[in-house]
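hey
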């Protein structure tokens, strides 16, 4: 065994100088807001509105305001469920395509104010923003630009109406961590389609909530990853070139959204939206996905450099159904059982390349996000070795790049030594914020990773886990 590791150990001791400059950022890099957003990892989507009561997914816009009538609305319950499920934020459909607003929007006559719910005094955004603040989770809003009710939809006047809608929602409910836009653009009540002024819309958000990330097909804060199954590409760059594109029909190709672009001009990370049920809005005859399905979703979203936005629709009472909340508790319990024990505890890390002591390989084994291992600028293909104190069983390998300095790795290979022979456990392309590899179960003491970077690798975490809950899931 000693002969295997001695060359790396000797090289690791050759360069232990201090006060060496860190690597320069490579390519487009995330803003501090984008880093904080990515580290949230999982958020809750809540589709709620007239569709909850009509059974439709896309309302007609002609529904009577009184159709919206939750009898036991309790946003504190939503926030409590989200918190127990490990969600860091909630995004609410403040206005869906039907145009109905869950707050008394003065730019519309199709809102909770015109309904008999709570005597026209109700305000879902107010209650949810307060509940999120109380629970210590962040609050975000979805406002669809498509409006099947607004009489000016399909005319230049509507863009200003929509700006007024954004202005009211963004100035009355505290900090907004994410403004969610989709590119849906169907016909309005006059049979016309709207030409959206995205510069006006995005500029309004940036002016009123500068810390908020704007989601759409093309960002600019984060982007849709191309499907509603939360299956990110095996290759997933957080970079996109969006010049000349717009949300909706003018967006990039779906495979581009799914994989990002190696040489993309802007840092626009992926967000994966998927519903816990078959539909987005509550339907009585539907049931939530199984824990196994949710784990598969986690691995193909968070585990492939994306944030997971899991839709959990409140029912006609205005509560998260018991079946859904129970499933979320089971899902979080499964995640805890898999990821609460990092099997690299007590391990030693070595490399054939070291930039300086403060950037040494041991940094990949701690949980300090801002400590990382890196090498000289000219070294693009270093090897990292993890030596465990004893053989352990594992089938999940997690790696993280320190994304504040950019996304650098374009492929890597992982080998494990079982005491007799080396096995090729995995090979993959991108890492980004987080990559979780699903492998066969190995009983091994040594892990060796060969990196191939576009710039010197900057790795801040390597961890091993044993998933006995969904061990049948394979990459």
């Amino acid at each position: 065994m000693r002969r295997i590791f001695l060359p790396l150990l000797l090289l690791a001791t050759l360069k232990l100088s201090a006060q060496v400059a860190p690597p320069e950022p490579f390519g487009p890099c995330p803003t501090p807001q984008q880093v904080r957003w990515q580290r949230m990892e999982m958020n809750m989507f809540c589709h709620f509105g007239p569709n909850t009561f009509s059974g439709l997914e896309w309302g007609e816009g002609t529904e009577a305001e009184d159709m919206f009538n939750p009898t036991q609305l309790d946003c504190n319950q939503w926030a409590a469920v989200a918190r127990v499920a490990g969600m860091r934020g909630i995004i609410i459909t403040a206005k869906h395509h039907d145009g109905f607003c869950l707050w008394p929007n003065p730019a519309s006559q199709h809102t909770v104010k015109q309904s008999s719910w709570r005597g026209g005094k109700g305000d879902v955004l107010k209650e949810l923003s307060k509940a999120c603040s109380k629970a210590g989770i962040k609050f975000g809003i979805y406002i669809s630009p498509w409006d099947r009710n607004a009489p000016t939809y399909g005319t230049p006047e509507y863009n200003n109406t929509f700006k007024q809608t954004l202005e009211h929602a963004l100035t009355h409910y505290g900090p907004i961590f994410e403004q969610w836009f989709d590119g849906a653009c169907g016909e309005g009540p006059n049979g016309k389609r709207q030409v959206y002024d995205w510069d006006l819309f995005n500029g309004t958000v940036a002016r009123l909530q500068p810390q908020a990330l704007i989601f759409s097909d093309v960002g600019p804060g984060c982007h849709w990853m191309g499907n509603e199954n939360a299956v990110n590409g095996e290759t997933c760059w957080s970079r996109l070139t969006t010049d000349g594109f717009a949300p909706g029909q003018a967006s990039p190709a779906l495979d581009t959204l799914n994989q990002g672009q190696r040489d993309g001009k802007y840092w626009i990370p992926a967000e994966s939206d998927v519903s816990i049920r078959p539909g987005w809005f509550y339907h009585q005859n539907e049931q939530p996905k199984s824990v196994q399905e949710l784990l598969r979703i986690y691995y193909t979203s968070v585990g492939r450099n994306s944030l997971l936005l899991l839709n959990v629709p409140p029912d006609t009472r205005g509560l998260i159904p018991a079946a859904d909340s129970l499933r979320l508790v089971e899902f979080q319990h499964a995640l805890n059982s898999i990821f609460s024990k990092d099997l690299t505890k007590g391990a030693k890390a070595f490399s054939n390349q070291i930039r300086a002591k403060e950037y040494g390989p041991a940094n990949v084994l701690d949980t300090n996000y801002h400590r990382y291992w890196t090498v000289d600028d000219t070294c693009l293909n270093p090897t990292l070795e993890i030596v465990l104190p004893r053989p352990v069983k594992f089938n999940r390998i997690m790696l993280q790049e320190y994304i504040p300095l950019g996304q650098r790795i374009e492929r890597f290979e992982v080998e494990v030594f079982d005491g007799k022979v080396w096995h090729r456990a995995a090979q993959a392309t991108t890492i980004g914020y987080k990559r979780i590899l699903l492998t066969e179960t190995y009983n091994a003491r040594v892990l060796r990773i060969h990196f191939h970077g576009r710039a010197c690798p900057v790795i801040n975490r390597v961890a091993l886990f044993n998933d006995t809950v969904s061990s049948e899931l394979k990459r």
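Residues 1-17 have pLDDT under 50 and may be disordered. Residues 40 and 88 are 6 Å apart (CA to CA).
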